[in-house]
Amino acid sequence: MTPTTSDVTASGGVDALGGADVSGAPGGVDALSGADASGGSDASGALGGVDPSVADGIVVVDKPAGLTSHTVVARIRRLAGTRKVGHAGTLDPMATGVLVVGLNRATRLLGHLQLADKSYDATILLGATSSTDDAEGEVVASASAAELAAVTAEAIEAAVSGYRGEISQVPSKVSAIKVDGKRAYERVRAGEEVALKARTVTISRYDVVDVRTVAGGIEVDISVDCSSGTYIRALARDLGADLGVGGHLTMLRRTRVGAFGMSSAHTLEELEKSFDLLPIADVAADTFPRFDADPEQAAAIRTGRPLPGLKLPAGQQTAMFDPDGTFLALYEPHGPLAKPTAVFVS
Questions:
Q1: Which sequence positions are flagged as catalytic?
Q2: pLDDT tens, 288-307?
Q3: How crowded is the C-beta side of 220, counted as CA atoms within 13 Å?
């Protein structure tokens, strides 16, 4: 059933998770030019049957280990034949899993999608402290066999329980957080001592999946749901510190970013064969409440004009569509008016 001009239908099948992990979050009107990772556009070299003139959408990549998120974006630029590509939520080179990539106008939609909550599977090695809090750094301290023998599964669970809920976490020193205009990891590599401030994050799920003894330590498999800004490396570091044996991360796989999980993710090799793009209109319709405008309203929405008398859901954005089903903009209520937070058509 097509809604009337005053009806708004809530989207189904999407977990509304709140927040955003890239620039361009709601608050004022987002200019049409949007976020362009490298400027300009290049319609040449498109592969996988992608037409750059209509390729406004989201690609969910299953990032392999060994590649930076920037490298993945470069690969997607080549496959899609456009330079307007951005991603939501960086993954370290050793990490694998979900990397949400936006193409063309959808790069601006990334900032409005509700991508704050993430899910991870990880493995922590207890018994060794790393200079980077993960396996890519140097081991700077090791626990004795006697110290490791004192660590039981019950002790691990007790320590983990203290990190569930809202916690104060000091990020890893080798993070991308800027300290006086310079990335923390750059200062560490230059031999500087870096002290980062604690920040509040939320760990809504922190499950111990398996515990096993290995050469040189104890491996702990965990599964975590957490808010944006949480460092899984810091969880590994702090668990080891609490148990008195040190610890670092040896494996990290992101399984979900907002509503995008592994079921919609594709490897780069799969995308080489078939470029599976989620159109911007489908993503908007599945993520936000939907409003189908009449022709007069659509004309106003295209130019970002406020609309009187619309009953839009309070406290959230609504995706606005024209009578032909074209996604036009995101609007939210402001008193008696509905005003745009982002317009996606010219």
A1: 92
A2: 999 999 999 999 999 999 99
A3: 32
